[in-house]
Amino acid sequence: MRNPSQTIGNLIDKSNMTVLSYLNEEGYPVSKAMLAPREREDIHTFWFTTNTSSKKVKHLRENPKGSIYFVDKRFFRGVNLLGEFEVLETVEAKERIWREGDTMYYKEGVSDPDYCVLKFHAKEGSYYSNFNEEKFIIEN
């Protein structure tokens, strides 16, 4: 992979679903399908919307370690990023990624107490393509 930021960034931009994984209270991994990130900063920081009342938020508050996985089904390639999540409930964070139509999920709008932001900080990753795996470190 000549340019990880470009190769992986393109894969992420074409993916319409993200699989987010975290550890439950017994230490077992749990994976959840999520909508694509609302924003990304290169391949090191990702912003997602979610429900404050969700189990994943509860577990990520206790243990922020997790991963996000993006797949390109058409060419059978993907990228898994390992890192840590932050649960953000500030007005600034919520307004930053709010979109028209989000009231479908958060009835009270941007100030809905059941609306929060997950900010993921990637530290390392694995890129899968042509039946090969290439590991890399992410420098912020």
UniProtKB/TrEMBL annotation:
Residues 10-127 form the Pyridoxamine 5'-phosphate oxidase N-terminal domain. Pfam families: PNPOx_N. It comes from the Bacteria. PANTHER family: PROTEIN BLI-3. This is Pyridoxamine 5'-phosphate oxidase. The lineage of its organism: Bacteria, Bacillati, Bacillota, Clostridia, Lachnospirales.
